[in-house]
# Entry
Amino acid sequence: MTKPVVILVRPQMGENIGAAARAMLNFGLDELRLVAPRDGWPSAQADAMSAGALDKMSAVQVFESVCDAIADCHYIAATTARLREMNKPVLTPSELAETYASRSGEGQKVALLFGAERSGLNNDEVAMAHSIVNIPANPDFSSLNLAQAVLLVGYEMFQAQCAIEPVAEVDPPAPQADFENFFTRLESELDKGGFFRTEELKPITLRNLRTMFLRGDFSQQEISTLHGIVTSLRSK
Amino acid sequence: MTKPVVILVRPQMGENIGAAARAMLNFGLDELRLVAPRDGWPSAQADAMSAGALDKMSAVQVFESVCDAIADCHYIAATTARLREMNKPVLTPSELAETYASRSGEGQKVALLFGAERSGLNNDEVAMAHSIVNIPANPDFSSLNLAQAVLLVGYEMFQAQCAIEPVAEVDPPAPQADFENFFTRLESELDKGGFFRTEELKPITLRNLRTMFLRGDFSQQEISTLHGIVTSLRSK
# Structure
């Protein structure tokens, strides 16, 4: 799969470039391009904020215009806070990630454009994109900083990239026979302790108990712990 | 729908608390709790970094322990970078968001625990949670800062909030304080019965027990049934 390229357009603070680089590498993106960075490049502030990410990524490329920066790309998505009146598809980050997964699978190079800190992308730049990416957020407090926008888009790309398998497995529940065995013992011990007020209510109470204990999905190890608990409580 | 509570445990830098608050409000989360913040509370650094978020949120509450901070919550998820050897479900942020959407639809209060900047949550704190949340990231560069972890979890919550309607039917779990109360009693009764072989192993055994019993998601009624079981088993 071809990895997407992140393009920061007229970024101002070196710190923000560094934080964006860190967010990129967190999700395995390692190709960063800059269009006309205000304070030039390289940047000591960017290095410091990247927490080592810039050293591990491909060398950052600097371009004079968006047009140059996207020349070798096949699909361009423009991240914007405001929605524009342009007849382009507006995607959520997760929809973009799906688009990316299928296009990059075909060998296409996908570029993600992010505008300057305050001003964002201008209309001509947005017009160069195939789609607009809009991050759904609290309408009363929607301002995300540059690195956070990069983080969220990178996160969604990363989810799409690896078909996500569970990170760790919980122990499997014990075979039902082990559970029954414990449950039978519990019933008999509760009987001795006078737990069931009346014979009439006993079946209902037992059903409720069974429901409770079944919900635990106890493993074999845990069933034997439960036996230990009963033994311990019955002692003396 | 009940909104989730974000709990920062022993946060160090006020700046990080402020950045986390901003990330929360970006996705509509407005209840922040702090456990033992290193530099006290309120914090001028936090105010500055929150970009106005702290003023718009509910007043931040400060607690001395995780136990106190989660007392009124019904479901606790612990965000950790390292996976622990605990028999708890490990969720991605989007799986957590689904869980949250269905539980909050039933009126349950969901709490998200985030540990201190470097050290994270300790094992006893993780043990109090029903599930562990792990953010899948680049294994070679996985370190996210606190605000970014909050941002990603908040983002997924926000996506899920709109989508899923409540499942309902099952009794809601008891508030965490009821569970603690039962668990404390169980521990003391097990002590009397000689359940814990050595003082050394006791903390680990208790963590495992807690994990088992938390999985049951017991309602108030069921917690009182558990008390009844202990009483009955202890009787001669």
